[in-house]
């Protein structure tokens, strides 16, 4: 991966104008599509497979009059007044008639239609007019909603002075979310952090540009999707939060590495390519973890949550794509201006090349003595406007050195204190209550919130969340009497305040009972009532012969909350298991992935606990401008778990990878923790502060849906970065010492390798001039070792050119086969130097596989045809294994004929002839298989260090 990213970064830097133009064109197309195709978000929550959703779908077919959206008009008499006064009653009756005449309104029931109407408050101070619409919420025209509010205003004007009228209900329970100036404060804080980190205006501005462009692209795609999918209002805000946060951070990591390399003397183009290859590899890994976790939200089986996860994952994918392409392009425009003038070539124009410093640009390790090798020196007084700042203080290195030494001085104490503190912070999560937002979570003063509060005050909280008990009554001979009996019995169930309606439909095949709970829509009492009514299903079926279901918007919200709560454990096991595998791949360790996963669990638990403390218990709720206290939106826990998992892996990778790198180079586990910490702590600190600022900016002015998510992510990032990754993990690694980097050999062989620090690319740079420049060798091997084969522990070597032959003999079948597989990039080599087709192995294994062909002749039905297929693939290296298995002389001659034709064809076209590698036990003659006159090399295995030697020329005449 690092090699491919190096090539991408080099190309993007050189073609910076084209890259910038392409991204601007893409953005223009996306924005145009959003304007033409977007229809707005929709907070209609569907959850297939639940009782409430199946009942709602059935009502849409059999009782459409009650299946559409609904609204409520509440009219309150002035103090001392009475809603039963003739004038008051006449005005409300007239308003009900006018409401029923509004397009898309199927009915508006007068509270005075029955002497025992439940829609007149007990003290005669208020009346309620239920309004039923013929279409769902998403299909209600804006003109209909405006007409409802206008009729409410007209009624208030017609009533006596001091009366109050409000129109609310389900239709008006959604809030229009948008971006406020508060979110811009988060971006401003991010810029300040970047300015302090880079000490350069040019470098600080680039991450903001890439992040804003990426966030804009992802938002445009989300709004295009609203024309085809049901997308909630939380989805674009979540995509925006993540797009900004990870977009800034990913660019930060790449630019930080680029800036360090420029200070070491690298040419800007080369440095940008290496930064994309090294830091970019870690960015890709980190992004993959975030994307997988977000896509894992689909395990809950809830469509709107899956859509939310896909949209957020798309925002992360766009952020990483822009970071890998647009960031090096912008670095090309900035040139040397991302560092202070002292680091630029003397008397050279901007962008001029400069010889690479001998330092290893892929390391960038800071010294342990507390000095800052990459600190910006004193600003010059040249008077130019290149964006230089005052000197960057070296005190931060001493600060971080003191931090890590404090954490590791008494590591057991550090571990105990942190685990105890985070455990204490997690305790409030024991009473975390989940619910979907309703009108009660709207801002005060909005029509929906005013109506909600008035209904709660004069009728009781249950009127804001009525339940519907429905079922088929087609077999009844007296559906009206049956529904009356059902309504009477349900009215006596504990927790039921009243039964507002109990009736069959016009066809007499479906009945509904509208139940008013004693508790509010998000109360535990209402949840218990839903459970109680459903537990009576068998009783109702036995007593009345009716298969009843409990539904309504309130019941659907309870079902969604239960489904999400049930999905938390499998989702948690998924992401924790994923982290174990991914981190074991990266760090080749058992301790690191296990402690990383446990640290993540602590971070998530603490984030849930603190969120509960604020949004359920109300601690600091006023200071944070919390819109609604008492419950947290149902999908907050699973969203926070998914996003925080990816971000936690980000910090784990960027911190611990430097520690592992230092340990591999120097072998001192304790010094590796310090040096690795110092080399990455500053950039990780900046990244965490930026993440915290972006998330926290969505809290004060956010709605009830986004506030708890933003808060949970903000505190979760702060805890995970500063407490877990930068304090707890160094202490754990100090306790385990060398054992931190141990992994069983069997597991090491099974796990794939993922190079996140560009070690493979560094190896390519190291072997760039080996063998001698100009050599036309196809296979260059020196001391190559393969741990999986003990016979090859001593290593082997060979130097074979194009059109030549390597004859591998001796040793066991497994050893010979291992040599061929290693030369073809199909088996990892663990020592020595190896290049095939000019590509370094194992770093470029995938590219070598595409340039080589491996044939098991002893298993082929038609050996010659198998060789023909291998040549037709265009491979430059043809490896023929099991030559001994071809015992038929005509078959051997056919293979030789095929290889001869391939050599002649290549010569005539001026192309390089394929190199042939044979493997056999020593009983086959090379001349029987390959064209005569070719240079052949013999590699006999079994010696302590086998090296290929030239073979005598073939006895056959040279091919003409």
Report on this model:
With 960 residues, the chain is of the alpha/beta class. It has three domains: 489 residues, Up-down Bundle (Multidrug efflux transporter AcrB transmembrane fold); 230 residues, 2-Layer Sandwich (Alpha-Beta Plaits), CATH 3.30.70.1320; 184 residues, Rossmann fold. Helix content is 52%, strand content 11%. It contains 27 helices and 21 strands. The strands form five sheets. The protein has a six-stranded mixed beta sheet with strand order 16-17-18-13-19-21, sandwiched between helices. Strands 15-14-11-12-20 form a five-stranded mixed beta sheet. A four-stranded antiparallel beta sheet has the order 2-3-1-4. A hairpin with a 2-residue loop joins strand 14 and strand 15. Helix 2 runs parallel beside helix 7. The longest helix has 35 residues. The radius of gyration is 36 Å and the shape is elongated. It starts with a helix and ends in a 10-residue tail after the last strand. The relative contact order is 0.09.
Features:
single chain, 960 residues, alpha/beta, Multidrug efflux transporter AcrB transmembrane fold, Alpha-Beta Plaits, Rossmann fold, 3 domains, six-stranded mixed beta sheet, five-stranded mixed beta sheet, 27 helices, 21 strands, 52% helix, 11% strand, disordered C terminus
What order do the helices and strands come in, and which of them pair?
Elements (H helix, E strand, L loop, with lengths): L1 H13 L1 H22 L13 H12 L7 E7 L9 H15 L4 E4 L17 E8 L8 H17 L5 E5 L12 H18 L2 H25 L8 H30 L4 H28 L7 H32 L60 H15 L1 H16 L7 E2 L11 H12 L8 E6 L6 H13 L4 E9 L5 E8 L6 H12 L1 H8 L3 E4 L1 H35 L3 H25 L16 E2 L2 H31 L2 H28 L10 H30 L8 H6 L8 H8 L10 E9 L10 E6 L3 E6 L2 H11 L7 E6 L2 E2 L4 H6 L1 E5 L6 H10 L4 E5 L7 H21 L5 E5 L16 E6 L4 E2 L1 E2 L10
Parallel strand pairs: 5-10, 12-20, 13-18, 13-19, 16-17, 17-18
Antiparallel strand pairs: 1-3, 1-4, 2-3, 6-8, 6-9, 7-8, 11-12, 11-14, 14-15, 19-21
